[in-house]
Amino acid sequence: MNTAAHDATAIAQRYIAVWNETDAARRAALIEAGWTTDAHYVDPIAQASGHEQISALVGAVHQRYPGFRFNLLGKADAHGDHLRFSWTLGPSGAEDLIQGTDFAQVDSGKLRSVTGFLDKVPVGA
């Protein structure tokens, strides 16, 4: 049994909270609490390094998809300092439009790097 499963879920939930936070100051505080200072993020569309760039990237997603919410899909899984979880994105209260899977490296409970993959993206999204 993976003893990191509980931590995996908590870290993934904090990650999703960052992506759902529309207030820049509250988002910055969440990033400060949950990401290392040298953290970086990359997916097929974007990349960001450091807290400010990660927050700006999240803000850009809110501008592109106003009113959309991220949710965890399934169960987060951890192995050593690696984390894997899937998520959905869609209008609040409606069926998701976008799905993805993220792989992360964790350092002392904080995200050091996240590599995102897009599993379901409708044309034009």
Automatic annotation (TrEMBL):
Organism domain of life: Bacteria
Ranges of residues in domain SnoaL-like: 12-112
UniProt xrefs under InterPro entries: NTF2-like_dom_sf, SnoaL-like
UniProt-recorded name of the protein: Nuclear transport factor 2 family protein
